[in-house]
Amino acid sequence: MLAATSLRLAAAGQGGHAFVIPWENPAMTNWTAPAPYRVSLKNWVDYPGWKAFDKNTSTYVLSRQGVPGNPNWWIQLDCGAPKRVTEITFTVIPDYRPRGVYLSTSVDDVTWTHVAGGVEPEPAEGLSKTTVIADGAGMIGRYWKFHCQKTYANHRFTAIAEIVLRGFE
Ligand SMILES: [Ca+2]
């Protein structure tokens, strides 16, 4: 046990994190598969939102913006257990860019902590943007929720092609 612990700490390097098994969210094949992962959302069109987490940048989640009284929409990944997430990569599709997207996280689906804002790429930045969390130290959460606040251009729809979370078990 001691040897294994020492090995992990050695691998952690200067960060000294106790858990250093690299982790990345799996490709979802439905709302709840593979278990224990689960995608949920609050949006304003009927769309298979789990495709924002299917590791395919040609598929996406779509929603309307600007619905009276409910202007924002969100999509979240429940990892089934807490993960330390150190970075996320957020990919859009050209004509339906969201704007002002921020990420929050929770360990219990009750208390939420703001993680990062502006996680979407600006048009000049291309279609994907990677955001490093807490200078690479990451944050620990089970639920990771992406809030889409605004649109670009004249579209009333926004879409997210793919979100990938990386970090440690
Ligand atoms: Ca996708």
Features:
169 residues, disordered N terminus, binds calcium ion, eight-stranded antiparallel β-sheet, two-stranded antiparallel ribbon, Jelly Rolls, single chain, mainly beta
Descriptive notes:
This protein has one helix at 2-12; strands spanning 22-24, 38-42, 61-64, 73-91, 98-99, 102-106, 113-117, 128-132, 139-148, 150-151, 157-160, 162-168. The protein has one domain (23-168): Jelly Rolls (Sandwich), CATH 2.60.120. The strands form 3 sheets. Strands 1, 2, 4, 6, 7, 8, 9 and 12 form an 8-stranded antiparallel β-sheet that branches. It has a two-stranded antiparallel sheet with strand order 3-11. With 169 residues, the protein is mainly beta. It binds calcium ion. Residues 51-52, 54, 56-57, 59-60, 161-162 line the site of calcium ion.
- Structural class, please? mainly beta
Share of residues in helices: under 10%
Low-confidence stretches: 1-13
Q: Could you say what the CATH architecture is?
A: Sandwich
Query: What hetero molecules are in the model?
Result: calcium ion
How much of the sequence lies in strands comes to 35-45%
Radius of gyration based on Cα positions: 17 Å
How widely separated are the two ends? 18 Å
Q: What is the domain tally?
A: 1
Fourth CATH level, the homologous superfamily: Galactose-binding domain-like
Any idea of the CATH class? Mainly Beta
The global form is globular
Mean pLDDT: 87
- Assembly classification: single chain
- Kindly report the CATH topology: Jelly Rolls
DSSP, total strands: 12
The major sheet is characterized as: 8 strands, antiparallel
Number of helices: 1
